[in-house]
């Protein structure tokens, strides 16, 4: 059921009051700070990668292998950070909850629990023991060719 004009006006007033009172909370509710921080993290990781390349090449030129290893570790760490932050940024952009919403509107941020987890009913202690379940799993792995 759509909101009436009066309700929309009151909602906008409450949003403006919240932004004036606590802009950090409003930014968190909006979700845009997450994308900005992911973008900043990716840019910083790119700069660190360039520093890592420089350190690696310095180690190769001066024939100090420890300097080259340090440069490689810097490159590896920065590439990992860049990839994870870019994945998070793409996931936030592809989120259907945030798509199409105005920049000043609020969106709901998932609180950590995902709907994909299915709760299985607990077995009663008398149904089977822990060791029986482990033996069953071991037999299934061995029979399916799962190896160790």
TrEMBL record:
Basic and acidic residues composition-biased segments: 132-148
InterPro entries: DUF3040 (IPR021401)
Any single Pfam family the record assigns to this protein: DUF3040
Keyword vocabulary terms for this entry: Membrane, Transmembrane, Transmembrane helix
Keyword Transmembrane helix set for record: yes
Top-rank taxon: Bacteria
Transmembrane segments: 42-59, 65-86
Record's keyword annotation contains Membrane: yes
Annotated region (Disordered), positions in chain: 94-148
Protein name: DUF3040 domain-containing protein
The species this protein was found in: Nocardioides luti
């Amino acid at each position: 059921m759509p909101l009436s004009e009066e309700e929309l006006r009151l909602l906008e007033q409450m949003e403006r009051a919240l932004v004036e009172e606590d802009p950090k909370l409003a930014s968190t509710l909006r979700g845009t700070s997450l994308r900005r921080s992911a973008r900043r993290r990716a840019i910083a990781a790119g700069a660190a990668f360039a520093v890592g390349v420089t350190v690696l090449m310095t180690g190769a030129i001066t024939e100090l292998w420890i300097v080259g290893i340090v440069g490689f570790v810097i490159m590896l760490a920065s590439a990992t950070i860049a990839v994870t932050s870019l994945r998070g940024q793409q996931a936030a952009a592809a989120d259907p909850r945030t798509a199409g919403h105005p920049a000043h509107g609020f969106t709901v941020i998932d609180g950590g629990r995902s709907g994909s987890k299915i709760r299985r009913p607990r077995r009663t202690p008398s149904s089977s023991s822990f060791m029986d379940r482990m033996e069953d799993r071991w037999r299934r792995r061995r029979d399916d060719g799962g190896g160790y």
